[in-house]
Amino acid sequence: MPASKEVSGFEALFKVAKNYQKKIKTAGNGAVLVVANEKGGIGKSTITALMASALAEVGLKVLVIDIDPQSSVTQMLLPNLEKLPSPAIGDLLTADFDGDNAIFPADVIQEVRAGTVYNAEALGKLFLLPSNPQLGKLNSYLATNINGRQILKFIVKELVIENKALVNEYDLILIDTPSQLDSIFAESALIAGDMVLMPTTPRPVDQWAIAQTIQKIREAKKVANRGLEIVAAVVNMYDPRSGLVESEGLEAVKAALGDRVVEPPIRSLKTIANSPAKSMSLLTSGQAQKPADDFRQTTTEVLARILARIELNNPSKAKGGR
Question: What is the pLDDT averaged over residues 122-130?
Fold first, then answer.
């Protein structure tokens, strides 16, 4: 096995990924995971980028959708850009799919080249539906459009090209959202998704957002997406050396979210914080093994919970191809 994969976390994640792929062939499509929290600055985009990278490395075909006007995950996954991509997600949200100048997801989605932000020896592939700051100008348009909040769901699940929708093309779709979940973009993601991954931190200043995030998910569930649930919560920026305050913060998160909290928490280490800025994944060869192994373990638990949710929702479907 190549040196870049000689970590115990790789084998465990690989095994769950294979089981997940078998199950989604039965279910007929992959899961759509929304990464969301009302609070900014907790690492949503970093977690999205690294988790997508970890899953691609063990063989999944992963699509990341960036629906945040700040375009953070776009900049992480497409490093060294002179300017942000165009066309981007905003062009799809306003597209006329029947017109002469129609634009489709395949015209916008870009493959993230292996060896940049994820391992050159990856067994799967990673793709990005990018964002750019022009997306922010569409807030009023989408808010006043009678179907504005439903367009992303249509693009992901209902727009069929050559007998397949996006949800049938990819093993897993992750949607990176803006903070402030009352934005039209975050609401669109909650309507389009199957499950929510909630990143948070043990910092007291971030914990007020847990209840607000849960409330926004309940609202989306009540109005437009009855099956939406928090499948897992990930504690980011955890530093066990900080003593009692950090430990109490972690326990407070567990008290608020119960068994949805995934172990282990993601450590507050420079290799994690700096990896996007260096255009290098935490998971690539040469990075610190311990945080990489911890992150793969966290990703394994998240994927296992997604798999369990799919099995619960599809207990008796006969096997078949996608």
Answer: 92
- Identify the helix (H) or strand (E) that includes residue 152: helix 151-153
Q: Provide DSSP, 82-147.
A: SS--SS-HHHHHT--TTSTT---HHHH-EEEPTTTSS-TT-SSEEEEE---GGGGGGHHHHHHSTT
Question: Alpha-carbon distance 305 to 259, whole Å?
Answer: 11
Q: What share of the chain is helix, strand, coil (3-state, %, to 5)?
A: 50, 15, 40
The contacts of residue 144 (CB under 8 Å, 6+ apart) are none
H/E element, 257: helix 244-257
CA–CA dist 35, 20 (Å, integer): 19
CA 207 to chain CA centroid, Å, is 21
Assign residue 162 a region (left: φ > 0; alpha: ψ between -120 and 50; beta: otherwise): left
Phi then psi for residue 73, to 5 deg, are: -70, -30
In the chain, the N- to C-terminal Cα span, in Å, equals 30
DSSP 161-222: BTTB-HHHH-SEEEEE--SSTTSHHHHHHHHH-SEEEEEE-S-HHHHHHHHHHHHHHHHHHH
Q: What whole-number distance in Å separates Cα of residue 220 and Cα of residue 218?
A: 5
Tell how far CA 180 is from the center of its chain. 17
Domains detected in the chain = 3-312 (3.40.50.300)
Average pLDDT over residues 286-300: 78
**8 Å CB contact between 121 and 74:** no
Closest by CA position to 186, among listed 222, 231, 143: 143
Prediction pTM value: 0.91
- Tell me what the pLDDT averaged over the chain comes to: 87
CA angle 23, 117, 82 (to 5 degrees): 125
Q: Are 255 and 235 within 8 A, CB to CB?
A: no
